[in-house]
């Protein structure tokens, strides 16, 4: 695989790079209890400037399964409260021998700025409303496991599209892999830029024609004004209700990057129903992040499974 200096976003990754990351993620997904020493003796830091449960802990599990020493940075007890910049924090960690940093931040473009000036490997764990590349990878891995392929699938992403960094990564990755991407949701929550080939459709078309119905959380923390009067109103107009779920085509599945607002974007009874892959997504988060960390820190030394390298997408 071509060496990656960082994983900041999926916009500049080729189809081959995406496929090889997914292949390696599947390698680890098939070995859920395997403990490796691939990163033994190497230090990785997690710097989360925004709240997180799934992403933060799955990165830590991935790091420990690869044998790395893990440092969890807590902004409230660090020198950032005294005015230290993230750049100076990273340079301090570099001076101590830390080789990689997983960063979640509200500031879009921060990782691109840091990548120009530091030697440490950087992994984007979500920057503002820009991208969330490892979430995209675990979503794609989950779809590949379910359907055996990605090319030709129709995926509907529904909800608060404007504020979704998950969508930001999928907009770049899915078309490269031959996925037909549909968008649906409130007009006020549509993204400003929609790539050619990505279609905006009605809720009914999205739900009735898609192999994957992916609901997105309403990110009220990023809204400057209220866009609906009540949770019940939003659920009725743009949520995956029990009635809408009966319209899904045979074999279609439900996904959600989580956290889930039960009763808002998705009815609570659907979160863990038999067609839901939401918990499977969480499980696959560890494998996807193991693949990313291994690729960044091992580079060309990584040995890919021949049988997986030729997998159909």
From TrEMBL:
Its EC number is 2.1.3.2. It is an enzyme of class 2 (transferase). One of its GO terms (molecular function) is aspartate carbamoyltransferase activity. It catalyses: carbamoyl phosphate + L-aspartate = N-carbamoyl-L-aspartate + phosphate + H(+). L-aspartate binds at residues 82, 165, 217. Keywords: Pyrimidine biosynthesis, Transferase. Signal peptide: none annotated. Residues 151-295 form the Aspartate/ornithine carbamoyltransferase Asp/Orn-binding domain. PROSITE patterns: CARBAMOYLTRANSFERASE. One of its GO terms (cellular component) is cytosol. Residues 6-145 form the Aspartate/ornithine carbamoyltransferase carbamoyl-P binding domain. Carbamoyl phosphate binds at residues 54-55, 104, 132, 135, 258-259. Pathway: Pyrimidine metabolism; UMP biosynthesis via de novo pathway; (S)-dihydroorotate from bicarbonate: step 2/3. Heterododecamer (2C3:3R2) of six catalytic PyrB chains organized as two trimers (C3), and six regulatory PyrI chains organized as three dimers (R2). GO terms for biological process: 'de novo' pyrimidine nucleobase biosynthetic process; 'de novo' UMP biosynthetic process; amino acid metabolic process. Belongs to the aspartate/ornithine carbamoyltransferase superfamily. ATCase family. Gene3D superfamilies: Aspartate/ornithine carbamoyltransferase. This is Aspartate carbamoyltransferase. Catalyzes the condensation of carbamoyl phosphate and aspartate to form carbamoyl aspartate and inorganic phosphate, the committed step in the de novo pyrimidine nucleotide biosynthesis pathway. It comes from the Bacteria. HAMAP family: Asp_carb_tr.
């Amino acid at each position: 695989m071509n060496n990656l200096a960082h994983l900041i976003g999926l916009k500049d990754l080729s189809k081959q790079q995406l496929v090889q990351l997914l292949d390696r993620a599947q390698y680890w997904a098939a070995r859920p209890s395997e403990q490796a020493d691939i990163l033994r003796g190497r230090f990785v830091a997690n710097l989360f400037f925004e709240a997180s449960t799934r992403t933060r802990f799955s990165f830590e599990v991935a790091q420990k399964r690869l044998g790395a020493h893990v440092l969890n940075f807590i902004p409230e007890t660090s020198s950032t409260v005294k005015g230290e910049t993230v750049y100076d924090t990273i340079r301090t960690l570099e001076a101590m021998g830390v080789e990689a940093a997983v960063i979640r931040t509200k500031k879009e473009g921060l990782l691109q700025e840091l990548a120009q000036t530091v030697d440490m490997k950087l992994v984007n764990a979500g920057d503002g409303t820009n991208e969330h590349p490892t979430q995209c990878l675990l979503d794609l891995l989950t779809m590949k496991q379910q359907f055996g392929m990605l090319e030709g699938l129709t995926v509907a992403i529904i909800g608060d599209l404007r504020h979704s960094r998950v969508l930001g990564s999928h907009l770049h990755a899915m078309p490269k892999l031959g996925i037909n991407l549909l968008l649906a949701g409130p007009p006020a929550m549509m993204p400003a830029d929609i790539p050619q080939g990505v279609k905006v459709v009605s809720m009914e078309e999205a739900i009735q024609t898609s192999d994957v119905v992916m609901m997105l959380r309403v990110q009220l923390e990023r809204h400057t004004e209220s866009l609906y009067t009540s949770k019940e109103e939003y659920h009725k107009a743009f949520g995956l209700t029990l009635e809408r779920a009966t319209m899904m085509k045979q074999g279609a599945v439900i996904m959600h990057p989580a956290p889930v607002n039960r009763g808002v974007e998705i009815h609570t009874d659907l979160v863990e129903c038999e067609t839901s892959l939401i918990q499977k997504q969480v499980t696959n988060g560890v494998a996807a992040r193991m693949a990313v960390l291994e690729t960044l820190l091992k580079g060309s030394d990584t040995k890919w499974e021949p049988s997986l390298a030729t997998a159909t997408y």
